[in-house]
What we know:
Layout: H1 2-18, E1 53-56, H2 61-75, H3 92-103, H4 130-148, E2 158-161, H5 175-181, H6 183-197, E3 201-203, E4 210-211, H7 215-239, H8 246-264, H9 271-277, H10 288-292, H11 300-318, H12 323-330, H13 334-349
Parallel strand pairs: 1-2
Antiparallel strand pairs: 3-4
Helix pairs in contact: 1-12, 2-3, 2-4, 3-9, 4-6, 4-7, 5-6, 6-7, 7-8, 8-11
Amino acid sequence: MGNQSMGSSLIILLSVFLCFFPTRSATVENFNYPYLWDQVPGNVEDLPVKDNKIIMDPWDYRDRLSMYKMILNYSAKYFTQFGINNTGNAFWMLTTFYGQLYETGRLNDPSNYLVNDNTEKKNFISIKSGWGGINYYVIIPFFLVALKLNFFGTLPYQIELLPQEERRSDFCYSFDECYTSYPQMMASNSKIFEYLQSREKTSNNTENSTYNTDMDTIVHYIWSGHHSGIDVGKPLFHDKSQFYSTGEKDFTEAFLFTVEFIEEANYPSDLKNSSEFLLGFPHRELTTEDWLIPGWDLNKYEKNLLIIVKIISQINNISGGVLLNIWKTFLISETARKSAQVLIKTIFLFPKVY
């Protein structure tokens, strides 16, 4: 009871502090579809075939985006009742965030900034990008598990991932290779597709068949799979941290820590909620000064997000690292999780007047 009481006090204190200033709600008029979304294939039959194989390069932005798009397309039937045109699909948060990483330059080679030369091979993800390494373990396990479980149906050709020889030991490129190195991560990702494949039709309407998908359950599985991938990928960012400014490093640590609060609250991950949340993700890499005082070119949502993740990480440090555990204890019921989702939306989507 002591932890719960302390948790409630901290949550209330945080809420009051963060919501003290006048606010304005975020409005999203256009959904945040990733760069090149309409130009990449999202079905097996549209993938290029060479020598009776489909080779996908996970270090090509377009091929990695195709993996996200295939998962969204083939899972669409399970989300029919949650939004038109697949907008209610719970895989959107991971997909739109990937697009944000690319458009904000965080998938480029960070070492190039040191020599003031950021020329990149167009549409490719640098093997030296810490963010790219983290994201690799967010999507690749999902995709490999989906292949293993025949989520995309019977394939006319075998799909293989093209390995990068540079830093080869840092990454796995097949289901068996990933399972050998990270069995817990692959097991966590398997639950997502096993759950979807176990769903039964509740309506046989030829155009809009529906399944008995429980949104809270699938969001929980997706966030759990995301968390297991982050745990594997985070050391890859630390390994390359010397190439990033102190501001970008501190922001990355604080942001990823804050995301754990969002995961635990089972925050909705459909297209609308994803687009709203990412309004605040900084449109460029941060300087050391940005972490102290957000730069003038950052908009009100970006400044708000920076300040919020900094406050949350600082409170966690002050509390001796127990804030997240208290948050988990607080979220023991569905009612508490729904309240937490409202709190998160209030904090992140209603910028304060700074």
